[in-house]
Amino acid sequence: KNEVEQSPQNLTAQEGEFITINCSYSVGISALHWLQQHPGGGIVSLFMLSSGKKKHGRLIATINIQEKHSSLHITASHPRDSAVYICAVDDNYGQNFVFGPGTRLSVLP
Amino acid sequence: NAGVTQTPKFRVLKTGQSMTLLCAQDMNHEYMYWYRQDPGMGLRLIHYSVGEGTTAKGEVPDGYNVSRLKKQNFLLGLESAAPSQTSVYFCASSYTIQGTPTYNEQFFGPGTRLTVL
Asked: Could you say which residues from 23 to 42 on chain B have a Cβ atom under 8 Å away from some Cβ of chain A?
């Protein structure tokens, strides 16, 4: 059974800071996903990756398959980035997603 | 497109009552899922479906039943609600992005907040 851990649990940053959220998992996967859950509860997909690095705007996601570890970076953070960031692994090609507990990020102006 | 919708948004039940949560998607996705989200824990898979007429158990299926009679709808039933089923329930659907590698991108509904007294 896959176990997904995230660190830190909570993170407070000043606007403009560089932020890193980490995710580790225990068993082989077909893909790793980063999701964002807004204060209102809605969940949106940010990244899907199985190797290397992806970038969307100020967000960068990396994965190291050998080390079973992924990081989500936010450059030049902004208060609108305040949300819960969730790491999820797909370990059976869409038939089993295992989610981490989330990292709650607050970016202060 | 409405995406993934869930009905109702909120519900309060008494112990022992039954109810059905409805999830609908208009994206023609094959896969659909029901999750529950509890404080301090990650989303946990209750049941999922890989196509019309098929369902399978997830990590926490006890006390729940599901049906997928139409491709666009996935119903979650609680036959006899218990306080331990107080949670926020999320439905999701996904499609497979074929290629190397193959990805399944998930789209989530807005959630249903259920309280069982």
From this structure: 31, 33, 35, 40-42
